[in-house]
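Quick question, first post here. What does this chain look like in 3D?
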Amino acid sequence: MTLRSLADIRKIVLHSAATPNGNNRWKIADINDWHRIRGFRRTAPGKRIRGGGNHGSVGYHRVIHCDGTAHLGRALEEVGAHCFGENSDSVGICLMGTDKFTPEQWVTLERQIDDVQYLVGAPLGVHGHYEFHDKKTDPNFDVWTYSNGGLKPMPDNIYIYEDEHE
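> Answer (accepted):
Ran it through. Tokens below.
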């Protein structure tokens, strides 16, 4: 496990999990399994630091389920495994879904961004994964417009529940 100071954090990188939009079946435990298969490891067995979740392979710092609940992956002091070449100074936040996120997710995302900036004690740039890697498209919305528009989602990226989900 590689640790850092909160003062080392300069940016937040947003991701999406490429799961069906609005489907709360997918959880952080699924991401843990996917990342474990890919060889992501955080801690030696039984070793945890304060503020980290119980999932030993998750590369993100926060994962937001479709119902709007936020789940801890890595502690902020842990270097992530979410954006190759950018992990040492970034926090990774992943939204379950692909390109449309529930109103609850948008509210939680704004709170998580505010919370991370508060804990770090500084304003941080908010970026999409796609900004750092040509072959990535996630989180599949214009993060610059979102970030510079007061953390308000664009209407095309809001998941509207269908009758069977209500």
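Residues 26 and 96 are 7 Å apart (CA to CA).
Helices lie at 28-37, 103-120, 143-148.
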